[in-house]
Design brief:
heterodimer, A: mainly alpha, 3-stranded antiparallel β-sheet, two-stranded antiparallel sheet, 12 helices, 5 strands, about 65% helix, B: mainly alpha, about 70% helix
Chain lengths: ~475, ~400
């Protein structure tokens, strides 16, 4: 049995959301009126040659890199200044309503005076959001940014594998566990979203953080028609990808794709092993508790006084160790396992972004092929006496030429964005893994410290048997 | 009045520590595991005149130990003693199965993983082997330490006769007979247990042993389960270490070294976890299992005594009836005297045996619990690492390694 108390807040895990963010984000220029970045404004980004040198080998302290990754100024558009430093979201669980759980989102801004966005003027504020609000936010961001190459952090799963929500009552332990898993997942999701320099400025994100009441997101019902449509699209994409053979002129992309494929396989395997460890540690906790009870009973029937006392002490030690195992299992899960789970999902998003690039290329190629056909057709029409058709053909060709140019620009744009995103992603990944795994190892050490205390207290009791 | 029993000196200088008597020392100096047989080399050192030499060795198999044990059980003269429980049959089936499965799955894992798992399983096999040797040895030592059993002729033959004792294992018919004997005994035992004893000492012992035996059984089972979970967790850590290692060889420069270091850490942790499980097994699980068997042997002694008491009471009734009818009085008198003598003899030795049982039990628990605590401490300290070293140095890999 797990002893989750409803007020248990996992304080050590909230630190997760306080992981220091990269250095200051410089001013970005984006029109506050648009509902998403316009393609042209992004065209004014850093000149190409800055990215020629962008590789994945970023170290943790290279502030120059951050400057490279920013967007350059464009005088025609009104500049806004986002917060220059950390937004650290903390999420607390409120109550359960018929429509689903509600969560309290606390935002802390480190330098509120440096930002021009009104929502970040205060140092601390909070809003109340439903679980479906988070899903709705992700859905909007995904539809706006994924296809142009931004790695949008995936939303937490709606049904957590192996834990169907059982409405047995508020004190139900498995229900508490479910809520905590969800709360923690939302916290990590939101943190990753606001860490992204582009997403932080998105109006939907700002609205999410600011407004008191959001309209109910409609298409997040499990297996809703929209959900099914998305699944179908994903499947179709997978099929398409197999038939598109792109002439990859850029070795960087080929290398990166291979890298993410390998990473995907390895992380899934590691994740499975860690999940197994969590499971066995929980089992160990249960079995230790049972043994403790049994040892206590044995101590009761033992008629030699000193041995009886020692056995009771042993039972107490094992009971305390049971609690240690539980805590360790939580650390195993919330630090290690969830980290891996998050990255498995993130890498799926990364692979998706690469796929979109291929699709963009395909679109460009298709327009080129079509243009060629039209030109051939036009050439043939030259010898016929059909001036209307000829003009029509010439018009179509003009249009297609524009499309081809746009296609090329789109392709170059998405390639550029992906390079930037991958650089940012890898940097975050290195930091995340190092920070969280070190924290996890610290938890292991703490457990051992406790174990030492318990056994040191027991040893004299054992020696006292005479 | 229990305290009085605890502190009263034992009338016979009974050796609780099984290793100290120089007149007869027995140990298992060597053992060989061949396919499905284990051959134990029983080594004896003795100053007793019964033996031809002062030091000699023979090779024995498990069945011969069982033969010796059964000969004690069947000997009426030993009814008043706690017969040292027979050692369990060497069981390598589970371990062998695991090794076989590993061999079959060799293709599906990396070379490092395979080697590691093979080493783990071999260590497990070795641990089981050592345990079975220990159990057989303890049996012999208990017999050698017992003032009466050590003089048993079968025991001397067992120790000295350097040919095969030709004791075949029990055939099906004999096994079936044993089974029925046990059923009758348990049914009988229930009836006999219901009879309240006039002697407070034995009444207390009966109550105590019944409860104790059941609780030891429960504790033993729960302990086994706990240890199995430990082993499972250690296996998981092994897989995690391997995966981290693979990541360390594949991933970007920055994380490479980090993953390799963490993989090493997990490997070390796993080794310690496996060690913890093995030590708990030896010091706790084996202890509980042994006292499960010993408490059963003690219960059997009480049963035999109760049986003798019932026989004695029946003989008394028979004598009264014979006197009343004035028929076969002499026969009844003889019978009654025999039963009385038998009962008293058993009672006297049983009392001493039970007192010694308690002394042995307390000493064994003390020794094993102390050793368990010391080992747990040692392992926890290893897993914690040396105090004062900064873990966060790991993230920058500034200092050469944390562990």
């Amino acid at each position: 049995s797990f002893s989750f108390s409803p007020t248990f807040t996992f304080s050590k895990f909230q630190i997760l959301s306080r992981i220091p963010q990269p250095a200051s984000l410089p001013a970005l220029d984006i029109s506050t009126n648009s509902n998403g970045p316009k393609q042209d404004s992004l065209m004014d980004d850093d000149p190409e040659d800055l990215f020629a040198g962008a590789t994945e080998e970023v170290s943790l302290d290279s502030p120059e890199r951050d400057v490279l990754l920013s967007d350059g100024p464009s005088p025609a558009i009104t500049p806004i200044t986002p917060p220059t430093s950390v937004i650290a979201p903390r999420i607390g669980h409120i109550e359960e309503e018929e429509g689903g759980d509600s969560f309290d989102v606390h935002i802390s801004v480190s330098d509120p005076e440096k930002t021009s966005l009104s929502v970040f003027k205060q140092r601390d504020f909070s809003v109340k959001r439903r679980f479906s609000d988070f899903l709705g936010l992700h859905s909007k961001l995904a539809s706006k940014y994924l296809h142009i190459g931004y790695i949008v952090p995936p939303a937490p799963e709606k049904s957590i594998v192996g834990m169907t929500k059982v409405k047995v009552g508020k004190e139900d332990q498995s229900s508490n566990e479910f809520v905590e898993k969800r709360r923690s997942a939302l916290e990590r999701y939101l943190m990753r979203t606001v860490k992204h320099p582009i997403l932080l400025k998105d109006p939907d994100v700002l609205q999410f953080l600011e407004n008191s009441e959001l309209p109910r997101a409609v298409n997040t019902q499990a297996l809703s028609s929209a959900g099914i449509l998305r699944m179908v699209n994903k499947a179709a994409d997978a099929v398409n990808k197999m038939t598109i053979k792109m002439n990859e002129s850029d070795a960087w992309f080929e290398e990166k794709q291979q890298h993410f494929e390998n990473l995907d396989v390895q992380l899934r395997k590691l994740h499975a092993s860690v999940e197994s460890l969590v499971c066995h540690r929980k089992e160990l906790s249960v079995n230790t508790a049972q043994f403790a009870k049994s040892a206590a009973m044995l101590g009761n029937s033992e008629d030699h006084t000193a041995l009886s006392r020692a056995l009771s002490q042993l039972a107490e030690v094992e009971e305390k160790i049971d609690q240690l195992h539980q805590d360790q299992a939580n650390a195993d899960f919330y630090l290690f396992s969830e980290l891996l789970g998050d990255y498995v999902r993130l890498i799926t998003a990364v692979k998706g972004v690469f796929d979109h690039r291929i699709k963009t290329w395909q679109k460009w190629q298709d327009s080129q092929v079509l243009l060629l056909k039209k030109r051939e057709a036009e050439a043939k029409l030259q010898f016929t006496n059909k001036p209307d058709k000829l003009q029509q053909a010439k018009d179509e060709i003009k249009e297609l030429e524009g499309k081809v140019q746009q296609g090329e620009r789109d392709f170059e744009q998405i390639s550029k964005i992906i390079r930037k995103e991958v650089g940012r992603f890898e940097k975050e990944r290195v930091k995340d893994f190092k920070t969280i795994i070190v924290k996890y190892l610290e938890s292991l050490v703490q457990t051992q410290q406790q174990l030492i205390k318990y056994w040191e207290a027991f040893l004299p009791e054992a020696k006292a048997i005479s | 009045h229990l305290e009085a029993i605890d502190s009263s000196p034992s009338p016979r200088a009974m050796n609780v520590d099984l290793e100290m008597d120089a007149t007869l020392q027995v140990d298992i100096s060597d053992a060989l595991s061949e396919r499905d047989k284990v051959k134990f080399t029983v080594h004896t050192k003795s100053t007793l005149p019964n033996f031809k030499q002062n030091e000699f060795s023979v090779v024995r198999q498990h069945e011969e130990f069982i033969w010796l044990h059964d000969s004690f059980i069947e000997n009426e003269d030993y009814a008043g003693y706690i017969i040292p429980p027979a050692p369990p049959r060497p069981d390598f089936d589970a371990s062998r199965e695991k090794l076989q499965k590993l061999g079959e799955g060799e293709g599906s894992m990396t070379k490092e993983e395979f080697t590691k798992m093979k080493q783990e399983l071999e260590a497990e096999y070795l641990a089981i082997f050592k345990k079975t040797v220990a159990m057989h040895e303890v049996f012999l030592c208990r017999v050698a330490a017992h003032p009466v059993l050590r003089k048993d002729l079968n025991f001397h033959v067992f120790l000295e006769y350097n040919q095969d004792l030709s004791v075949r294992g029990k055939n099906k018919k004999e096994k079936l007979e044993d089974f029925f004997k046990n059923v009758v005994k348990s049914a009988d035992g229930v009836l006999v247990a219901g009879v309240k004893d006039v002697d407070d000492f034995f009444e207390h012992e009966k109550t105590f042993l019944l409860e104790y035996h059941n609780r030891v059984k429960d504790a033993s089972a729960k302990c086994d389960r706990m240890i199995r979970s430990h082993k499972n967790a250690a296996d998981d850590m092994n897989r995690i270490a391997s995966s981290l290692y693979t990541l360390g060889t594949q991933d970007s420069m920055d994380l490479c070294k980090f993953f390799l270091k963490v993989s090493e850490l997990f490997d070390k942790t796993r080794k310690v976890e496996a060690r913890v499980a093995a030590d708990e097994d030896l010091k706790l699980a084996d202890l509980l299992k042994y006292y499960l068997r010993e408490s059963q042997a003690a219960k059997d002694l009480l049963y035999r005594r109760s049986r003798a008491l019932v026989d004695y009471e029946n003989a008394n009734k028979g004598l009264d009836k014979a006197r009343a009818k004035n028929r076969d009085v002499l026969q009844a008198e003889t019978s009654q005297q025999l039963c009385c003598h038998k009962f008293e003899k058993i009672s006297e030795s049983a009392k001493q045996e039970l007192i010694d049982f308690k002394t042995r039990r307390v000493a064994a628990f003390r020794k094993n619990l102390v050793e368990l605590a010391e080992l747990e401490l040692k392992h926890a300290k290893v897993r914690r690492g040396r105090p004062g070293l900064d873990i966060t140095a790991l993230s920058g890999l500034q200092t050469p390694g944390w562990f």
